[in-house]
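Last lecture ended with a question: if I hand you only a sequence, what can you say about the shape of the protein? Today we answer it with a concrete record. The protein is Retrotransposon gag domain-containing protein. Below, first the input exactly as provided, then the predicted structure, then a couple of comments.
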Amino acid sequence: MVEPVNHQVGKLLAEFNKLRPTSLGGSSDPNAAENWLLDMDSMLEPMECNTFQRVMLATFMLRGAAKIWRRSVKDVQTEPLDWARFQKLFLEKYVTKSARDRKHQEFMNLVQENLIVSEYKERFTALSQYRPEQISTDVTKAKKFIRGLKTYIRLRLAPFQIRSYIEAVSKALSIEKEDEDIQVTRGQMGRTRQLPQQFQVRQDPNKRQIVPTSFGQLSYRPVRQQWQAMRPVNSQLGQQATRPPALAQNNQFVPRGVQPPPVRPQGQRHRHMGRFTLLLQKIHL
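The predicted structure:
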C-alpha cells in the first residue's frame, strides 16, 4: 500500500515544480550527469528543506536507468540517505575516478584570487559536489567559502557570527560592492580640476602658505616666491629693485649698476674754467 504524501512534502513538491527542474534518464555522458546534479543543488539550496528532503526531491526527477540505480542504492542502505552521501554515490556512478580526483583537488585549493564574488561562488558550487563530506553542514560550507575569499573581505567578515552559507555569500557581495563604490569616489576626487589662481590663499611672506590645489588636497609652500614676484621693477635697469639706488659723491642718486661720472679735484676745475673764459674773450675780440 502506498503511503499518502503528507502536507509538508506536497508543499515542497509544488514549490520545487515551480522551478521547472530537468529530469535525468541515466545518460552515459558524465558532463550531462554532472550538470544535472549541479542544477539540482542550485535549485534545492534556497528551499526550506532538510538534507533528506533534498534527496527525495531530486529522486523524483530520475528516469529510466537513473531511477533503477537509485533503487539499487536504497536497497543496500541501512540508514536514510542524506544529500552529501547522495552526491558522492551519484558522481561515483557517472563520473570517472580520475576526473573526480582532479575535481577534489581543485575544490580543496579553490580561492577567489582575481574572480569577483559571484564568479567565485559559481566555481565553489560547481566543485563542492566533489567533496560533499567536507561541507556536510551549512556552517562548514560557509567556513570553507569564507576561507577562500580575498583577504580584505575575509577580515571584514571576521566580526560577524555567520551561521549559513547564504549569509556568507550575501555579506561578501555587500562588502565587495562597498569597496567598488569607494574606489569610484576616490577616482572622481582625483579628477577634480585645480582651483583658479584668484581663489588661492595668500599669507605673510615670513609664514608658510597653504594653497588649495585640488578638491580635498592642500599644498604647503613658502610665500617668499610670491612676495618677490610683487616687488617693484626698476625702469632703467629692467630688473627687480631689491635695494634703494646708490648715492653718488655729488649727492645725486645714481641707479645701481651705472658708473657715476668722475669728480674732478677742486684745483683742476678752476683751471678748466679759466681756459674757457680766455676762449670766450678771443671770440668777442
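Comments.
1. The first helix runs from residue 7 to 18.
2. The chain is about 55% helix and 5% strand.
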